[in-house]
C-alpha cells in the first residue's frame, strides 16, 4: 500500500509493527514520534521509521493511518490530543493497547466526524523486554491480533484496510467486542502478571530466611515468573484500566486458594490430586500455536553422560537430520554421572524424528514425560 503512516510511541510494539509494515508496504512513508527523543532518534538511525518528528500534529494531518503504541493511560491522552486536530482527509486510527474498553469508548466519543475512524487493536504477543532495541519484525507472526471495532457493519471496510496495513505482522486477526477482549485478556494475560509479580515478592520476602531461595530459584520458578520482568508502567496502567475484571479475578483466585488450603489442612489427598489433575487436563488440551498466548512445547528428555561437549554432540546429530529445537536445558545431574537434557520442539513430528535420530546415532535413553 502507498500512503503516510504515523506511529506514536516507538517502543517494543510500535517499533515491531513499524518494521513489519515497512517490509510489506515499501511504498509507504513511516513517520515516528516518541515522547522520549532518544528513543525516536534511535528508531530513525536503526531505520525502523523513515523519519521522526518533534511534534506529531503536522504528520497526523497528512497521515492515512495513525498507530498509537504507548502505555494504555497515555493512549487516552494521545487520542484526546488528536481529536483537537482539524482532519480534512480520510484517516484510520488504531492502537495496540493491552486493554480495550476505555480506549475504544474514548475513540468512539472523540471522533464523531465521518472522515476519522478509530478501531481498537491488540496484538496478543510480546515480551518482558521494552524499547525500540527489542523490536522485531516477526514478533507477531502466527499470534492472535484482536480488533475491536465499535460497529462491525459500519466499520467493515476500515477493518479490512487496517488488516491490510498490518498484513506484514503475519498475525491471525480476530474481531470481538472491547468488553469481551478485556475479560479474556484479564484471564489469560493481566491476572497471570499479578500472580507472577506476587510469587517474586514472596520469594524476596523469604530470602531473608535463607539465601538459598534465590540461588535455587531455577526451572519452574523461572518459567512462571519470567513475565514479572515486564515494564512496571505498562502493567500499572493495565491494572487501572481493567480494574473491575481484575478485582473479580482476584476474588475467585482467593476462593480457590482457600479451597486448596482447606484440602491441605485436612490432608485430603483425593481433592489435592484432583486440583492438579484437572489443571493438567485443561492445560494439555489448550490449542497449540507456533506463537501467541500459549507457546507449543513438545519435550523430549535424554539421559546423557555428564561430560563437556555433550550438548553440542546432541545438537550436532539433530542438525545433521535438519531437526530444529526451540529450546534445550540441562535439568539435573544424577549421581554426578548422568545428566538429563530437556529438548523442546515445535511439533510432535519433530520430537518423533529426534527420538529416532538419537536412537540411530547414540545409545542414550530418551523418554517423554
Ligand atoms: N510489551 C508487550 O508484551 C505488549 C504486547 C501487546 C501490547 N502491548 C501494549 O503496547 C503498548 C506499548 O507497549 P510497549 O511494550 O511497546 O512499551 P515500550 O515501553 O517498549 O514503548 C512505549 C513507548 O511509548 C513512549 N511513550 C509513552 N508515553 C508517550 C506519549 N504520551 N507520547 C508518545 N510516546 C509515548 C515511551 O517513551 C516508549 O518509547 C502498551 O499499551 C501495551 O499495553 C504491549
Ligand atoms: O510474553 C510476554 O512477555 C507477555 O507477557 C506478552 C503478553 C501476554 O501476556 O501474553 C503481555 C501483554 C500483552 O498485552 C500481550 C502479550
Automatic annotation (TrEMBL):
Record bears the keyword Endoplasmic reticulum: no
Broad EC category: oxidoreductase
Record's keyword annotation contains Oxidoreductase: yes
Residue ranges of every copy of the Prephenate/arogenate dehydrogenase domain listed in the record: 3-294
UniProt keywords, alphabetically: Amino-acid biosynthesis, Aromatic amino acid biosynthesis, NAD, Oxidoreductase, Tyrosine biosynthesis
Catalytic function, reaction form: prephenate + NAD(+) = 3-(4-hydroxyphenyl)pyruvate + CO2 + NADH
Superkingdom, natural source: Bacteria
Ranges where the ACT domain occurs: 299-369
Protein EC: 1.3.1.12
Signal peptide as annotated in the record: none
The protein's annotated pathway: Amino-acid biosynthesis; L-tyrosine biosynthesis; (4-hydroxyphenyl)pyruvate from prephenate (NAD(+) route): step 1/1
Pfam families linked to this entry: ACT (PF01842), PDH_C (PF20463), PDH_N (PF02153)
Gene Ontology terms, MF aspect: prephenate dehydrogenase (NAD+) activity
UniProt similarity note: Belongs to the prephenate/arogenate dehydrogenase family.
Cross-referenced PANTHER family: PREPHENATE DEHYDROGENASE (PTHR21363), PREPHENATE DEHYDROGENASE [NADP(+)] (PTHR21363:SF0)
Protein name, UniProt field: Prephenate dehydrogenase
Organism of origin: Sutcliffiella tianshenii
